[in-house]
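Workshop exercise sheet. Pairs work together: one partner reads the sequence aloud, the other fills in the structure field after running the prediction. Swap roles for the next sheet.
Pair: D.N. / O.F.
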Amino acid sequence: MNLSTWSIRHPVPSLMLFVLLCVAGLIGFQSMKVQNFPDLDLPTIQLQVALPGATPNQLENDVARKLENAIAPLQGLKHISTKISDGAVSITAEFRLEKPVQEALDELRSAVQTTRSDLPADLREPVISKLNLAGTPVLAYTIASSTLDEEALSWFVDKDLSKRLLAIRGVGAVQRVGGVSREISVRYFGQEKEFRARTAEGWNKGAAWGARSRWEEPSGRRWEEARWQQPPTAA
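Structure field:
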């Protein structure tokens, strides 16, 4: 007598076993933890380097290509993507899934250190890290205004909106992409030597503003003013 014949002749135990298995399955499903963003450890390494004041063309020739040539021979490398902006280079190296993450991280760090002497001397220390999927943005919003210009809207997001969002429980970080970043621009009327000799304290006492001329240097962009004008003095 096989199991099927016994179940047909004795239907009650079979039905009870079926119901018991269904109840146990429902209880197990309810208690099972589900993550929207599971902790995946992918062998993807990110490399960030910065050279303040450098143009994208300069970074491509003096930094990005040299780093790509150093990373390309690594074993198990699948794909390299590079993003270049003013003063910064971001390289993402994707390895095959069978490649251990720590091994990929160590090999890429060693490759960067090997070519460090060929990079510009004023290049900041490279930042190497593995891809963290848990830190990717969960929500993204587009903000527009018919009354505020780009500068005022950026200031509103940084000063008011970001603080309110960070006050919400569970929010870890808020980042604005796009808009206008705050900066201080100093325009000096005079010679370059006088400009370099002046201190921040001297500038705080006041200086006139005017047109400027720009030129390119190996370390990036520099500006020099045509003349120096003393600030007005009180009578």
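Discussion prompt: DSSP finds seven helices and six strands in the chain. What would you look at next?
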